[in-house]
Amino acid sequence: MKFASKLAGTGFAALMLMAATAPAFALATITGVDQSPLYTPQSVSAGGFRAQVFGGPTASATAEETVAPLTAPGNFGGGPLKPIDAAERSGGRLVLIFNGAPTPTEAACSDPASLGGKSANGPLHVIAVYCLGDRWLARGALSGVDVTGTQDPAYARAMTNLFAAMLPMHSIDMPNGSNGQ
Question: What CA–CA distance (Å, rounded) separates 47 from 168?
């Protein structure tokens, strides 16, 4: 009883009332993350955060609008993503395919258009692959959250979480997180 009265004193009842009357919202789910044996944080840092965009999170989003609110993970400086031409295949780049293939494959680095990609309203579905030339270093997939536009905080939050999960500070394949050094 003592616990309940303490909760009531902190506004717990008001919080419960707000939760009961608030509209439900969908949470983004990261459906898969993987790093290749070639992955090292150093190779990602050297490659930078140029982004190729296929499709978009909403029907009207351009590539520039799609990447404008997105940043690199904090462990890589948190700088903005820079959109690049969809035909580019050299150097490090983050390939983002919206509403296309259900899982990321190595084709994202050599022939990303083959994985589809379209702009659509509704639940967000995106695969992201960090490529170095025609080889993938890290990949992940995310789905489930409805976004109202590229300025929707849920969009940036979901994508930030995906990038952070895909691109850890330590290679998951190396003992003790040594990154092969």
Answer: 15
- Position 119 scores a pLDDT of 86
Per DSSP, helices labelled H in 10-117 are 12-21, 41-47, 63-67, 107-110
Place of tokens 């999960």: 165
Please, which residues bridge with residue 176 across strands?
none
Going from N- to C-terminal start, the domains of the chain cover 25-177
Q: Which regions of 7-49 does DSSP assign to beta strands (E)?
A: 29-35
Two tokens, residue 4: 């309940």
DSSP state of 23: P
**Would the pLDDT of 20 be above 70?**
no
Q: What is the tens place of the pLDDT at every residue in 60-82?
A: 899 999 999 999 998 898 899 99
- The pLDDT-based confidence of 180 (bands split at 50, 70, 90) is very low
Rounded distance between C-alpha atoms, residue 71 and residue 149, angstroms:
16
Q: What does the alpha-carbon distance between residue 115 and residue 127 come to, in Å, rounded to a whole number?
A: 10
H/E run at residue 137? strand 135-146
CA dist 58 and 74 (Å) reads: 26
Q: How far apart are CA 159 and CA 124, in angstroms?
A: 10
